[in-house]
Write a structure and sequence with these properties.
D-Maltodextrin-Binding Protein, domain 2, Dipeptide-binding Protein, domain 3, 2 domains, six-stranded mixed β-sheet
């Protein structure tokens, strides 16, 4: 769950952090009433909010903060431990993270949504019950307390009336896992659910037609794009920039967006979400089939060519089918190769997918973290790169000045765009909905969040 969407569904209800994204503030002081960074970027100091208690009544202390950070074992644990020299308790209300070297992305990974390292748990309780006991009966400092849990079925929570920020407006929350989208819609219609997420376009149309139901889009940092994995193979048609540009001009993004997400997704020409720090706004590709055909002819393919399969996670294959139809109309005779998710991810990481991958990522972070994963030569999903881009990635790794980092990040994204390394489609809109009892669903209040958050903002209508 680390760095992805699912874990934060629960973290925002049960737990709290020194700093976390909130409405209007990507690094809002929470359990810390304030925080600051030293001028040299080697230390970050947090002042704890007074009077905060965990759900079991234990007072929140700097010892809990230190313990929680050292307990973290998520995907970014090695990265954080490699950068953090020590966590020092200055006094009962102040704690300081000292870094081995300046690292501008520290707060992205500790105070943002890129990891779960920042959530604070009660040291004494965890040590008493152990990790297994904590999983069965978690105790946090968030707006809701744990009541019961049926794995794979439901989680029941009760309002924490002593929550420091405000008393939640809804007394009991019941979170249910319902994989089938049609079942979620039926539950909304029957009043068995008040809020539900992740609807497809056909279901969204029905929501709009159903009295009492309201549709609400939300925007996780989920960008969808095509990867031309053979662009570094001189024998492949995809090694020609004109062919890759033709593919981008052949795709009717507006029409696919309308069909798949009611036109709610945000078209893009970048693999970096617009909401990420360091984003460079690449100019959108026009839908221009005649120009696409002309480019293919200039590249030596006046009659088109067999473009090969587009490998895709099977759950997104309808989008791929529409893309294939557009490519074929322009002369690029592609096919769809749907794969079960586990097989798709494994082959993608093993660099076995050719010649096109329909990729995507909803991982939190910033422009640097997204480029590290998909553009840098060491990225887990990088099939190739270019010397000028790789040189800038190395320069970025050693640069601590924020202004200079942004300049480098913008230049990398500009080069990626100029070389037509990818075929970006859109920033995917999630589609949520709520029923007639709900006054405020809290969907989309926090940038990049894909659920109702913060939960203390949920409100039901007065009877």
């Amino acid at each position: 769950m680390d760095g992805g969407l699912t874990g934060f569904f629960y973290f925002y209800a049960l737990h709290d952090a020194l700093v976390k994204p909130m409405p209007g503030n990507a690094l809002a002081p929470c359990l810390a009433e304030s925080w600051s960074a030293s001028p040299d970027g080697l230390a970050y100091e947090f002042v704890l909010r007074k009077g905060v208690r965990f759900h079991n009544g234990d007072p929140l202390t700097t010892e809990d903060v230190k313990f929680s950070f050292e307990r973290y074992r998520g995907a970014a644990a090695k990265m954080l431990k490699d950068h953090v020299a020590s966590v020092d308790i200055v006094d009962p209300t102040r704690i300081r993270f000292r870094l081995k070297r300046a690292w501008p992305d520290f707060m992205t990974f500790y105070g943002g949504l890129a990891t779960s390292a920042g959530w604070v748990v009660p040291k004494k309780y965890v040590e008493r019950v152990g990790d297994d006991g904590f999983r069965k009966a978690p105790v946090g400092a968030g707006p809701y307390k744990f009541v019961s849990f049926k794995p794979g079925v439901e989680l029941v929570l009760e309002a924490n009336e002593q929550y420091w920020r405000k008393t939640p407006g809804v007394k009991t929350l019941i979170m249910r896992g319902v994989p089938d989208v049609a079942t979620r819609l039926v539950m909304l219609k029957r009043g068995e659910a008040d809020i539900a997420y992740a609807f497809a376009s056909s279901m969204a149309e029905e929501i709009k037609r159903t009295p009492g139901l309201t549709l609400r889009p939300f925007y996780p940092p989920f960008v969808v794009w095509l990867v031309f994995t053979e662009q570094w193979d001189p024998k492949s048609p995809w090694s020609d920039r004109r062919v890759r540009l033709a593919a981008n001009l052949a795709i009717n993004r507006n029409a696919i967006n309308q069909a798949e997400t009611l036109g709610l997704s945000k078209l893009t020409a970048s693999i970096v979400p617009q909401s990420f720090d360091g984003y460079w706004p690449a100019p959108l590709y026009a839908y221009d089939p005649p120009r696409a055909k002309q480019l293919l002819a200039e590249a030596g393919y006046p009659n088109g060519f067999d473009a090969g399969p587009i490998s895709v996670d099977i759950s997104w294959a309808t989008v791929t089918e529409a893309i294939v139809n557009d490519l074929r109309a322009a002369g690029m005779r592609a096919t769809v190769r749907p794969l079960e998710r586990a097989a798709f991810v494994k082959e993608y990481q093993d660099k076995r997918l050719r010649p096109i991958v329909q990729s995507g990522s909803a991982t939190f972070g910033n422009a640097a973290t997204r480029l590290d994963a998909f553009v840098a030569s060491t990225g887990p999903f990088t099939y190739g790169t270019y010397p000028d881009i790789e040189g800038l990635m190395r320069e970025l790794a050693g640069e601590v000045d924020r202004g200079k980092r942004e300049t480098i990040l913008h230049r990398i994204q500009q080069l990626v765009y100029e070389k037509v390394m990818y075929g970006p489609l859109w920033e995917q809109a999630g589609i949520g909905a709520f029923g007639p009892r709900v006054e405020e669903p809290a969907i989309g209040l926090i940038t990049n969040m894909a659920t109702s958050a913060p939960y203390e903002e949920l409100r039901l209508k007065s009877k």
